[in-house]
Amino acid sequence: xxxxxxxxxxxxxxxxxxxxxxxxxxxxxxxxxxxxxxxxxxxxxxxxxxxxxxxxxxxxxxxxxxxxxxxxxxxxxxxxxxxxxxxxxxxxxxxxxxxxxxxxxxxxxxxxxxxxxxxxxxxxxxxxxxxxxxxxxxxxxxxxxxxxxxxxxxxxxxxxxxxxxxxxxxxxxxxxxxxxxxxxxxxxxxxxxxxxxxxxxxxxxxxxxxxxxxxxxxxxxxxxxxxxxxxxxxxxxxxxxxxxxxxxxxxxxxxxxxxxxxxxxxxxxxxxxxxxxxxxxxxx
Length: 284
Description:
By secondary structure, the protein is of the alpha/beta class. The chain has helices at residues 2-5, 31-43, 54-63, 78-111, 149-154, 158-170, 218-221, 237-241, 246-260, 264-267, and strands at residues 46-47, 73-74, 116-122, 144-147, 174-191, 199-213.
């Protein structure tokens, strides 16, 4: 990639120096980190400087398309180097788990019409023996089981679970949960009490689990649309208890109208200053 950037060919030569004759190769990569990367083109080995973190060097190598492995990178911080190598190895290993073990279980769930899956990872030596009459009461009968000691050891590390969750997100799955939970394997004993249901005690082992969903419209499937209709009935129980019949209601309304109309005497207006009218003419 760097050879193409500084090639004399006009087709690939897209790097131009600035006014001071400097080249800006990769924004965000420090000069110390880039100087160490240049050693790869001289002797094929990158020696990580103490001032450069291993994740920073890893990002720079990914950007410049330089292989990042134990043969090309030498670092004093072995913990940081091995952590990055383990993350890369975990991605590759989990991709194999998806194709060989997890994907067939998800396909089986999809063929039943399910849109989510809960997988419990057991070891090859684990034995599940549930009583048909007294099965576990925790909903484990809906869990899918994968027997793989290799995957069980893989999920023991929280860093591997973080890598697996990121891979599942990149593949479009949602509601991803990874952890370790108790899983019932076989029935230990039954406590019978007079007048009550027998209490079954199972042996539980701590095993990794994966829960994920591929449902597209999860919000719509759980939405219930209630149509609101205005009711004409009386909702007050006190009013319903004293509700009069039709005849009594009409009489009450007539009485209220009569009380609202004022009497004729109340409407008479008395003039405080009366005027005397002349007597009518008489005929002689």
